[in-house]
Amino acid sequence: MPAAARWATLLFLLALAGLLPSTGTASLRTVASPVDASAVGLDVFEPEDAEPAPSPFTAAPRLIALARPAATPQAPGVAGTYVPVLYYHYIRINPSPRDLVGFSLSVPPAMFRAQIQYLADHGFHVVRLHDAVMAILHHTALPARPVVLTFDDGYADFFTQAVPMLLGHGFSATDFVISGRMGWGSYMTSAQVRAADQMGFTIGAHTVDHYALASLSQVRALWEMRQSKLTLETLLGHPVIDFAYPYGSFNAYDEAQAGQLGFEVAASTIGGAWHWPSQLMDLHRIRATGGMSLSGYARLLGGPAPSSAELALAGGSVPPASTSPAATVSPTARPAPTPSPSPSPSG
Ligand SMILES: [Zn+2]
After folding, report:
1. Ligand 1 mean position to 50 CA, how many Å?
2. Most buried residue, 15, 95, 164, 229, by CB count within 10 Å?
């Protein structure tokens, strides 16, 4: 499919999922709606260099858009848990302007810095994925404005760009690592994966080879899940209990096996911020896209509009009405807490 057509398809899919900032507040609200969150099932593709060779078993589709039936309706009165689980890919300036897919997956470091500053400024609480899972399972309360940060694929820029910024705020994050790609060009080395784990970040599994699981035989799909778990557990010396489906591709067998293998959560690319215990094997997430404005990011999380200083930090334009000089630090910014990495509770 020509790049332009693929990009148009991606935009269409994202618009359907209500994930584009330009889709407006009304659409964004639907992301957080218990009803709509369970009614939309979209998978999006990932970058060219994360795309696997065709599966030796069946042809892996390059673009996966599974029209999944609506998730199991929740019984009336069963309370869900609201917590947006964001997922990122690269924290980088997209190296090739003509790579529109890469662009959509690349949040520039300055924008990422502005995003986490925004979270800190406005009382968001970055909670660990494990803590969110416990709250979903046991219907316990989370702090106000909770948000979970996840990263897919185990790219090196998670370690070199995101980790230092996250540590500066004492924020946690989970990175789903493709175990067979550690040490490859743009991916973290095994030493970086281990170091991130030891700094308190959570490492999850993301298969060995990054195939679309639903395209594989059951034998191969199970191996991809189990072997990636075992490889990372051997590297880290503790259980790995978080999993993410490559391309958001999975079927009922994969879901069942994820639970059987001991994963406490398996993250999908289905959009939504409301969660129920029955959905932990297809955890809904919200994609942090490249090209998203800080205002769009704020709307995605239901937060207030960013200040002009925050917009300036993001590299955006300061509103014309503002007469204050563009500051590099928000006047409402609080001092960053002392980094206090602690052992990952999910391992
Ligand atoms: Zn992936």
Report:
1. 7
2. 229
